[in-house]
Amino acid sequence: MSEITSSHISRGLIFSAGLGTRLKPWTDSHPKALAVVNGKSLLQRNIEYLQQYGITDVIVNVHHFADQIIKAIESNKGWGSNITISDETDLVLETGGGLKKTAWYFKDVQDFVVMNADVLTDMNLGQMINAHLVGKPLATLATSERESSRYFLFDKEDRLSGWRNVKTGEEKLVRQVGEYNQKAFSGIHVINSKIFSLIQQEGKFSMVDVYLSLAADNTIKSFDHNGSKFIDVGKPESVTKAETLFK
User: Domain with 148 in it: what CATH number?
Assistant: First the structure.
């Protein structure tokens, strides 16, 4: 089989609407997506990250200090990408609602990439896209074996089967399998656009809820990126750490 390249996917979504409460005091007067790591905002870094894999058409959802994000995109001419805004200034829709609102943008594509604005990584996205295009699941989720309070649970074939919060003990099992492997989700997805016809939730909801509601009847796979650099830039101290990892 000839290798499928990431050029088969040309569109992406970057979630940038969050309130960023963990990143206070920066987010008292700025959006989280514009937090700066070594002279570049998180948003710029992720737009440039997607560019490396041929993804130059990107929709960005905005809510918290939306005007600052729009101004940054316009004044920097999208950092070389074609940026579309999904406006959530009236009501922040969380990740699931935010994705559903962008359905129109992906109506002519089969698969697309989604990522959180506040994650930085050097993961080989091309390999993840290839795995998704070959295996043809409904969605492929980037995961790694790192410490977290919440985990997705996968079976031995890396198919999503549940979710667990190790701090509270809450657990949701959506497929009965012999053994559950817990993996931390990295906030990067490759999704087939048929998901839009399957989402039943309305309004404000999380992608975690979407995946758990669909995993019993649809294949949702994990893509391990252990060994690559990764950081969730959610707290002030993580900005400092990110500056040692990403120059």
Answer: 3.90.550.10
